[in-house]
Amino acid sequence: MPRTDQEASAAFDVALSELEADPAGQAPGRFGFDEPELALHQAEAHLTLGRTEQARSRAEASAAACTTGTPGWAAATLVLAQSEASDQPSDAAQRALDVLERVPPSRLRATARTRPEHLDSW
Fold this sequence. Notes:
Layout: H1 5-21, H2 35-48, H3 52-64, H4 71-84, H5 89-102, H6 110-114
């Protein structure tokens, strides 16, 4: 597990290089993994590392690449809300409410169900 920001950045670079080198690495639907999913995971990692601007950028990219109202869009939008929570709490809360209004709870991913609970911790 990376211990420093520099080690985390190096781990990001290695993972992206390996994905790019794999001929099937970015094939749509590969093991359920695609560009929006990659951007979502990058956003989550940046958020964990306290890089809110990078998290916001990657979450926006992920959400924009998804169809509104889908589970992937919901996950990305909730990570975007988390990245905004410290600077723009009312915007973050509105995003979370928008997700909950558009996506039935049964269609939310398990991780997306817990994200609104964590908004106040960012």
